[in-house]
Automatic annotation (TrEMBL):
Gene: mrrf
Principal cellular location given in the protein's record: mitochondrion
Domain of life of the organism encoding this protein: Eukaryota
UniProt similarity note: Belongs to the RRF family.
UniProt subcellular location: Mitochondrion
Domain spans labelled Ribosome recycling factor: 98-260
Keyword Mitochondrion annotated: yes
Protein name per the record: Ribosome-recycling factor, mitochondrial
GO BP annotations listed: translation
Keywords annotated in UniProt: Cytoplasm, Mitochondrion, Protein biosynthesis, Transit peptide
GO MF entry, a single one: ribosomal large subunit binding
Annotated InterPro entries: Ribosome_recyc_fac, Ribosome_recyc_fac_dom, RRF_sf
Amino acid sequence: MCADFALASGFVTVMALSRLNLLRPLLLRQLRCPLVVTSRLQQPPPLPACGLRLYATKKAKAKAKGQSAKLNINAALVEDIVDLGALRAEMAAVVSALKDDFTRSLSIRTSLGALDHILVTTGDGKFPLNQLGQISMKSPQLIIINMSSFPEATAAATLALRESSMNLNPEVEGTVIRVPIPKVTREHRENLAKVAKQLANKAKESLRRVRSGAVTQAKRTKEGHSEDTVRLVEKQIQQLSDNTAAEVDKLLAAKTKELLG
């Protein structure tokens, strides 16, 4: 009976191995090509705003650069090396002179005061026109200048009027200069706007001279101060100059708009 059991067990084992051999190709195929299980996956939630990296545009970078370039003026530090009050006064004087030039030289409507600033070159020097002649307005279209007090300066005054930026064409009758007031044309307005720009450029040149003088003074005053301190003072001087130049630009923009209408 033991022999029969052993024979039966051997038969079962052989059958099992045979079935295993039959299933082996299928198992190998499944291992090489695993089944793809599809499922509907939920989209991941959006990242929080703090996790996003925002890239600045060129305009934003330029603005940030301009803001970072501005310095807080340290009055105590600057005044120890340069006279801050005198420096600001010089720059303010440049702006004030530009305002005066705009008011006197670039008025669309000619008036008596508009001729006062004109400088007349004589053998004794340069003098304002209103100190050499008596200015009066005969009509809204005509200004009369009586040069009887200084008749020798009549020709020089006439030349100064012609060479002014006011588009004047004076006529001389003895010691009397007749100045017809020109009509306000578009061309005249554009010419005045060009003169305004020239005056603004001259004001900026004056600012550069003031700034250059202050920087030179700062470089000379190195005793008792480190190079870094002097360099910082130079940057602050530059900042003052830039602020004043921006004020000049604003005045020019306003005047140009007024002239061109």
